[in-house]
């Protein structure tokens, strides 16, 4: 499995609702609120053979209240 980090910018006042919906989908291993340009960050393990974009689109990106996302791919753990 490949780990990716996904940051979420939410509509004002919707961060807790978005976070709850993300967690309820049971596809993230970790979820944190953050300061700065984005409101949340999640660690997601992509199953072998899955296309990252399609997996994330199906699993998370249709949640109401998400304004923008930023996905960071990972390559090697040290």
Automatic annotation (TrEMBL):
Domain Transcription regulator AsnC/Lrp ligand binding: 6-76
TM stretches of this protein: none
Pfam families (alphabetical): AsnC_trans_reg
InterPro entries according to UniProt: Dimeric_a/b-barrel, Tscrpt_reg_AsnC/Lrp_C
Protein name: Lrp/AsnC family transcriptional regulator
Source organism: Falsigemmobacter intermedius
């Amino acid at each position: 499995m490949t780990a990716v980090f996904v940051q979420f910018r939410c509509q004002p006042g919707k961060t807790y609702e978005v976070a709850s919906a993300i967690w309820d989908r049971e596809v993230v291993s970790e979820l944190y609120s953050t300061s700065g340009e984005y409101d949340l960050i999640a660690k997601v393990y992509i199953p072998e053979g899955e296309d990252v974009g399609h997996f994330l689109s199906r699993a998370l990106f249709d949640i109401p209240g998400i304004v923008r996302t930023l996905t960071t791919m990972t390559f090697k753990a040290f």
